[in-house]
Amino acid sequence: MGAGKTTIANLLSPDFIDMDDVIVERIGMPISTFFEIAGETAFREIESQVLLELTQTSGVISTGGGVVMSEENRRILSKSKAEVIYLKSDFDTLYQRITADKSNVRPLFLNNSRVELQAIFEARAPLYEAIATQIITISGKSPEAILKEIQA
Ligand SMILES: Nc1ncnc2c1ncn2[C@@H]1O[C@H](COP(=O)(O)OP(=O)(O)OP(=O)(O)O)[C@@H](O)[C@H]1O
Ligand SMILES: O=C(O)C1=C[C@@H](O)[C@@H](O)[C@H](O)C1
Ligand SMILES: [Mg+2]
């Protein structure tokens, strides 16, 4: 969450597809509202379905931050021919960004303390590492510098 997947995907390809946007269109409400009404498990089921559909298309996709939590999703990403770019960050950078990003309030941010979010971050990091075909360390770098590294 907050590593810049949507920001960097937009720079890579302005006609990129953001998984969260596809999900919002499908559920007809903000993700945080859906979490409240239907719960995270229902969200994860839709997320997996959307991932499967999008990996059968071409182009740049920015995933949701929690996509690596499901073994099935990791299998879908590993088996796809896609390049999977992990924007690797330290926790403090991500925490500052998601705290400041008032235009996109993440439900996991609302529902978890800083300590709990750090635990989520630590559980996810090795999962991202395991499926990535390219790892870019993003802390302290501008979006343009990150784009250049990806394209190098
Ligand atoms: N390299 C960067 N330097 C500084 N700020 C950045 C950078 N990349 C993104 N941001 C800012 O950080 C916030 C989160 O970025 P973004 O929404 O692209 O992250 P994300 O990985 O798509 O998050 P999520 O997992 O919730 O979808 C935004 O406010 C964005 O403007
Ligand atoms: O990190 C997560 O689990 C999430 C990140 C967002 O992109 C959204 O997909 C949703 O808020 C869940
Ligand atoms: Mg995003």
Written overview of the protein:
The chain has helices at residues 5-12, 19-27, 31-38, 40-54, 71-79, 91-100, 107-111, 114-131, 143-151; strands at 17-18, 61-62, 85-88, 134-137. It is mainly alpha-helical and 152 residues long. The chain has a single domain (5-143), classed as P-loop containing nucleotide triphosphate hydrolases (Rossmann fold, 3-Layer(aba) Sandwich), CATH 3.40.50. A two-stranded parallel sheet has the order 1-2. Strands 3-4 form a two-stranded parallel ribbon. The mean pLDDT is 95. Bound molecules: adenosine-5'-triphosphate, (3R,4S,5R)-3,4,5-trihydroxycyclohex-1-ENE-1-carboxylic acid and magnesium ion. (3R,4S,5R)-3,4,5-trihydroxycyclohex-1-ENE-1-carboxylic acid binds next to helix 7. Adenosine-5'-triphosphate binds next to helix 1 and helix 9. Pfam families: SKI.
CATH superfamily, by name, is P-loop containing nucleotide triphosphate hydrolases
Average pLDDT = 95
Order of strands, main sheet, comes to 1-2
Number of domain units: 1
Q: pLDDT below 50 for ≥5 consecutive residues: which ranges?
A: none
Radius of gyration: 15 Å
Beta-strand portion reads: 5-15%
Helix-strand topology string: HEHHHEHEHHHEH
Q: What is the global morphology?
A: globular
Quote the CATH topology.
Answer: Rossmann fold
Enzyme class: transferase
Family: Belongs to the shikimate kinase family.
Main location: cytoplasm
Protein name: Shikimate kinase
Question: What's this entry about, in short?
Answer:
With 152 residues, the protein is mostly helical.
